[in-house]
Amino acid sequence: MNKQRVVILGSNSFVISNFLKEIEKDYNVIKINRKKINFLKSNTKIKVKKIIKKNDIIVFAAAIAPVKNFDMLNKNLDICINIYESLKDLKIRYFINIGSDAVYKDSLKRINENSETTPSNLHGFMHLMREKILSQLSCKKCFIRSTLVYGDEDPHNSYGPNSFLRLAQKKNDLNLFGKGEELRDHIFVNDIGKILKLILKKKIIGIVNLVSGKEKSFYTIAKKICKTYKVGLNFNKRNGPMPHRGIRIFSNKKVKKIMNSFNFTEVIEWIDGRGIMK
């Protein structure tokens, strides 16, 4: 019996890196990255149509992120439009879009899948616009909204667990903005792999927030790393207001319902069990 084909558009994405490992035994995974198809070019439609077959499952993760300016915004929307135009007339079995929790309005309460989507930055606006474009596809669809992701081989090295650990492993002191008091949800890339695998298997429809529901302050994370690697911790004065009003916390009820019994990896556990990060 032939395995179900799963076409990955944007296969170099860090967010889905473990997901690809999780599904490669059970599915026929076709990986498409920028080297194979430049999704920004006008010939994207022709190239994608040559690859996609009837009843394929599509996972769309291609993006230039994080979005920091209007040029990046426009490029990301162009990528999405090209993919939409490539797929709109094809008979696709199932479609998963990899997005971001940045689409949500800042809130002091726990955010869930029904919370207001009023992005506070270009990155969130990009993801929201892409969702609206792709929602016009006629197949079954799942829109993933992931919170901050940590784990090996993260290419972004943004403020948080990944960059803190890399610095400490090189015996550099850590620097926090303000007192590091902002509360954030973080999710382990390997947990994402397991969750997406089950979402794919169950063909979940609608919006799913990939969140742990277990927030930690940047200070708590940095303090643990400093203690583990015996490096210093500095506090720097902020230039401007605290992002997200200092809090970005989520309800994980929907993802826990999908997963049944599932223990999310704690950031602190990951720090304790880490070797040398690349």
Automatic annotation (TrEMBL):
<dbReference type="Pfam" id="PF01370">
    <property type="entry name" value="Epimerase"/>
</dbReference>
<comment type="similarity">
    <text>Belongs to the NAD(P)-dependent epimerase/dehydratase family.</text>
</comment>
<dbReference type="InterPro" id="IPR036291">
    <property type="entry name" value="NAD(P)-bd_dom_sf"/>
</dbReference>
<dbReference type="InterPro" id="IPR001509">
    <property type="entry name" value="Epimerase_deHydtase"/>
</dbReference>
<protein>
    <submittedName>
        <fullName>NAD-dependent epimerase/dehydratase family protein</fullName>
    </submittedName>
</protein>
<comment type="pathway">
    <text>Bacterial outer membrane biogenesis; LPS O-antigen biosynthesis.</text>
</comment>
<feature type="domain" description="NAD-dependent epimerase/dehydratase">
    <location>
        <begin position="6"/>
        <end position="202"/>
    </location>
</feature>
